[in-house]
Amino acid sequence: MNADRGETPTLLQEDQVGLIVEVFRMLADSTRVQVLWALVDRELSVNDLATQVGKPGPSVSQHLAKLRMARLVRTRRAGTTIYYSLENEHVRQLVVDAVHNAEHAGPGVPPHHRGDGDVRHLPSQHRAVPE
Questions:
Q1: What confidence tens digit (pLDDT) does each residue in 72-82 have?
Q2: Closest Cα partner for 58 from 66, 47, 44, 73?
């Protein structure tokens, strides 16, 4: 993409914009976000995903069907069990970045920065003004 090369981005094609909007629409549901997060570093069956996200299997299955149609997850069959995983590294990075961005909204050092010796807790930006 042009942004990777430091160039001024051009307008996106309408069909591409439509696909991007669909991806964000899929991310606008808490169950689907939980499902995608559960799949970040592994593949899981519907039953395992349902247990992981605390939702009924049929509900998780419906969400997975939508995520699959949006090309965010893929399947692998092993006997009678179907395993789900993220479609590709771009989807994985999108989910991880969304979670990390949300962690920055809270106070203190976000969990993904803990253990990084270069990151320190910053003082509050809301200081009383001396009189």
A1: 999 999 999 99
A2: 47
